[in-house]
């Protein structure tokens, strides 16, 4: 039997979880916030169709407000936190899923909670798939360098549609027609071309 190569970054519904990080009312000023939330909402719709569990956090909700309604996260119980990582707040959720292999990560800010969550998850031996069109920062320099930093540390950088198609796996999947409706229109532009173009040295 062929050996499974863990470094390929394959994602499967039965061993994946979706992390939704801190998309709250007081963060609406962050660059590309509406686009980031739209992409995260797509990921959540697909996760529900494929029975991929999802976890939602809120950073200091007393001061920064609740999760924005357009994320469509009704039915998820937000986990409050103050740490600049999701992992301490959702540790019990992680420990309750021994089959877990891959975490799909969306939210804000890239250089803060997304980066630190990624490092904590990698430390636990989990694969991290950062949804690049589903993460942003106030500063696009911070966003760019944080994405490069996570890649250097061993995280996978993926687009939302790339991950969605990996999860569904086959056009014969019984949920494919519903998922096709979700991805029929391309994900909104969140400024990524400007970050990646010109053979950016951070991504060599």
TrEMBL record:
Domain Isochorismatase-like stretches: 16-161
Xref: CDD domains: YcaC_related
Xref: Gene3D superfamilies: Isochorismatase-like
Alphabetical list of InterPro entries matching this protein: Isochorismatase-like_dom (IPR000868), Isochorismatase-like_sf (IPR036380), Isochorismatase_domain (IPR050993)
Record family assignment: Belongs to the isochorismatase family.
Subunit structure comment from the entry: Interacts with CDKN2A.
PANTHER family: HYDROLASE, ISOCHORISMATASE DOMAIN-CONTAINING PROTEIN 2
Protein name: Isochorismatase domain-containing protein 2 isoform X1
Gene: ISOC2
């Amino acid at each position: 039997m062929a050996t499974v190569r863990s470094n390929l970054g394959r994602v499967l519904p039965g061993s994946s979880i979706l992390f939704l990080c801190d998309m709250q009312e007081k963060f609406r000023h962050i660059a590309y916030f509406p686009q980031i939330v739209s992409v995260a909402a797509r990921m959540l719709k697909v996760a529900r169709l494929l029975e991929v569990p999802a976890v939602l956090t809120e950073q200091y909700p007393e001061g920064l407000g609740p999760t924005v309604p357009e994320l469509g996260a009704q039915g998820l119980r937000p986990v409050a936190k103050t740490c600049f990582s999701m992992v301490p707040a959702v540790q019990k959720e992680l420990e309750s899923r021994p089959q877990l292999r891959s975490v799909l990560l969306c939210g804000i800010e890239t250089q803060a909670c997304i980066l630190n969550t990624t490092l904590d998850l990698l430390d636990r031996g989990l694969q991290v798939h950062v949804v690049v069109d589903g993460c942003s920062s106030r500063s696009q320099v911070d966003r760019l360098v944080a994405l490069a930093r996570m890649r250097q540390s061993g995280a996978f950088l993926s687009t939302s549609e790339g991950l969605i198609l990996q999860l569904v796996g086959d056009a014969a999947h019984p949920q494919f027609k519903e998922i096709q409706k979700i991805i029929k229109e391309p994900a909104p532009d969140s400024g990524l071309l400007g970050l990646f173009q010109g053979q950016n040295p951070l991504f060599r």
